[in-house]
Amino acid sequence: MKILAISDIESKYFYDYYTHGKLSEFDLIISCGDLSPSYLEFLVTMARCPLLYVHGNHDELYDTRPPEGCICIDDQIYVHNGVRILGLGGSHRYRDGKYMFSEGQMRRRIHRLCFALLHHKGIDILVTHAPARHINDFDSASHCGFECFNKLIERCHPRYFIHGHIHKNYGVKIPQRTQLGGTTVINAFEYCVIEI
Fold first, then answer.
1. pLDDT tens digits, 72-95
2. Superfamily for 2-195?
3. Taking CA 71 as the corner, what is the angle to CA 6 and CA 77, rounded to the nearest 5 degrees?
4. pLDDT digits over 138-156, tens only?
5. How far apart are the C-alpha atoms of 127 and 124, rounded to whole Å?
6. In this structure, are residues 7 and 190 in contact, taking their beta carbons and an 8 Å threshold?
7. Does residue 21 sit in helix, strand or coil?
8. What sign does the CA torsion over 36, 89, 125, 153 have?
9. How far apart are CA 148 and CA 155, in angstroms?
10. Alpha carbon of residue 72 to chain centroid
11. Which alpha helices (H) appear in 28-178, and where do they start and end?
């Protein structure tokens, strides 16, 4: 399965400079948030494969104008061709906002998924907007990762942890791929291609 993971900024390669068939190689598109509904709609139309998304901290527009043809996987496990994908959107709370959460709030969201995790016997891919603590994150309130994501990864051992929120232009040493035990951590800023 070939997956296109996207987040935070619209890729000119897939949008402004799109050519027919450029997205046909993908079996699935996963958005980690903070992208316009029209961009997601364009991709899902041209790719002709499912597009899954979680909310970014700036995605309150989706409440009144959700991206048509796309599937929100926030707070649920979605299974695509046998691949179990869990979505947890939003970032650390640094101001008022619907998709901003304290550590305790995010931990409770995960706790509510315990039965689903048992039912599906774990997950293969964890999709979030924010990073995990001390993995591609910063100490600032707006870009701090969630410790409960670390615990979820340790407990479920997903093959991939895909997040957004950490823009590559925030620093020269921000990696796109990192390894955490048996889990490959991917910062989907702009886009990243994953083959599983």
1. 999 999 999 999 999 999 999 999
2. Metallo-dependent phosphatases (3.60.21.10)
3. 90
4. 888 889 999 999 999 999 9
5. 10
6. yes
7. coil
8. positive
9. 10
10. 11
11. 37-47, 103-111, 114-119, 147-156
